[in-house]
């Protein structure tokens, strides 16, 4: 049975790093590029991290019924939309996929594709350590945006509340203290899930 493996976690929990490391394991998982209206960041590339679109382009896609799910974040720099489009990238008849998304969007994907096809990979890091990692990463940016870092850190408490995780039926947490240990646990679970009929 084909599956969508969905990586989730608070800001700076290590989602992106873990996602890349899973792909490096060459398990044959396909990737899905989602969309955003936020401005492109240093080092990002159109169609690699995201497809970067304007709000007007999102509206047009929505009008033509091409948006599977979307979410809006009210950032310091204005509203940023993140969405998945029905653009032919996901075909559960042809394989398994790896994606990164939020709990809210995970729930929408689960409703859209069916819970038996969607497997959560929820990454957790103790808040103090996570803030340290977030700050370190922000310092390395050309134009650090500490205000946005703080906004996201606080917003995470709400978005990833125990109540929301429970509602999304996310039970297992992968602790990202040491990357290699965390990664092994995830890979083992992906392989076990894929071996199930
Ligand atoms: N196990 C780890 N040990 C040390 N540093 C780590 C570990 N995992 C991730 N990091 C570092 O923490 C920072 C945040 O990781 P990453 O960018 O992957 O997080 P993210 O969850 O994708 O963040 P965001 O959602 O904010 O983009 C990065 O600088 C990364 O190198």
UniProtKB/TrEMBL annotation:
Tell me the domain of life. Answer: Bacteria
What species is given as this protein's source? Velocimicrobium porci
GO MF term list: kinase activity
- UniProt-listed SUPFAM superfamilies: P-loop containing nucleoside triphosphate hydrolases
The taxonomy runs: Bacteria, Bacillati, Bacillota, Clostridia, Lachnospirales
Coiled coil regions in record: none
Q: What is this protein called?
A: Guanylate kinase
Residue ranges of the Guanylate kinase-like domain?
Answer: 2-191
Keywords noted in UniProt: Kinase, Transferase
Question: Which PROSITE patterns would you find in this protein's record?
Answer: GUANYLATE_KINASE_1, GUANYLATE_KINASE_2
